[in-house]
Amino acid sequence: MKIGFEDTPAAPAGTYSRHLAELLAEYAPEHEYIVDGARYKEFDLYHGFRPGLPLPLLRKIPSVMTVHNLNFLRYPHLYSLSERLVLLRLYRRALRSASLLITVNRDARAELSERLRIDPGRIEVVMPLAARVPHETPGGAQLEAVRRKYMLPGRFILMLGTVEPRHNHEVLFEAVGSLGERERAIRAEGLRAAQRAAAAAGPELPGLAADRDPGRGAAAATGRGGIATGMRGEAPADTAVRPAASSAERVGIVVCGRRTAYSDSLLEFARGRHMASRVDFIYELSPDDLPALFRLAHAFVYLPDAGIEASIVPVVEAMRAGVPMVLSDTQLNREAAGDAAAYVRPEAAGEVAAALENVLSDANFRREMKARERRRAELFSEYAVARRLIDIYSSL
């Protein structure tokens, strides 16, 4: 079967079209994949990604159209009346002519059915492809090279995606800024609890003599080994701080995305909270460096508001890399990550901070999240997407 794809230099449709053709040629080589509009007469099936293109209408062949969103209907204030009318006419014509429609998630499927009254039986859901990256896990030398190239901190939280207010970067900054405060409060409360316990036990409690040792006292005063209790590093179960928790206080933030006016305001926001030294921006990232960037990160945070059109591709990439995730509690994120992430309200800095403390400090929690991510990432593998599409094509 000769399968034709939309031929356009415009991004992102053109990039996605070529990406898909390359993927299918690798995993389903029994068919021919053509990204050349001049050869449309050879097509046995056509797959388009934008409305208004005439190829599916020129010949009586099966056609598939992928619909990523209906933003002109969801956010009408962003479009003029004439733009909305033109887009509505183009979409209606394209959707009527297509043999089958593809959306990238169940929410988009429901919206397409409700807003344009499309029979749900004509709509299939195929998860989007993440960026095509080398399958090999980056080695130590490559990781170190990427760290030097972008001057990355030793431990950092990665926030990758569109740099705009509705992705709540400021909430992450506030959450990370509070990590040290929360830990110091926990330590102080633990010290007070230990002092109360010692006072209640009385001066003759066995073992207290050891606390009068100057060396032991110095260790207790600094809280070395978790929390100061004066009992050889042992801490009461209800006040103990996990050994790795102190690292949360020193973690940095790396924001990766195209530079915008909001990027500059974010830097000012960080300065106002005395966090500028802990925040780094990467405005131009080589796609080849993406796997290493994810593997260097100690956590991935993605906090788009529920009402915006966000991409799940960063979530898929994070799962592939096995980096623990803190995500906004939206239908889209849950559909992508399932039980492989910690979910928070994107506007709640306290919830983000609490989730990060678990992700950064609890080794058992990290191991469990990574195991879940590996299982979940299989749903988004290139092979799974390729076979799903071939099954759809073959059904037409």
UniProtKB/TrEMBL annotation:
Domain called Glycosyltransferase subfamily 4-like N-terminal: residue spans: 38-126
Coiled coil start-end: none
InterPro entries the UniProt entry points to: Glyco_trans_1 (IPR001296), Glyco_trans_4-like_N (IPR028098)
Nucleotide-binding among keywords: no
Sequence ranges assigned to domain Glycosyl transferase family in this UniProt record: 249-375
SUPFAM superfamilies: UDP-Glycosyltransferase/glycogen phosphorylase
Entry keyword set: Transferase
Example of a GO MF term: glycosyltransferase activity
Gene3D superfamilies, A to Z: Glycogen Phosphorylase B
Keyword match Cell wall biogenesis/degradation: no
Swiss-Prot/TrEMBL GO biological process terms: lipopolysaccharide biosynthetic process
Region (Disordered): 202-243
Protein name: Glycosyltransferase family 4 protein
Organism: Alistipes onderdonkii
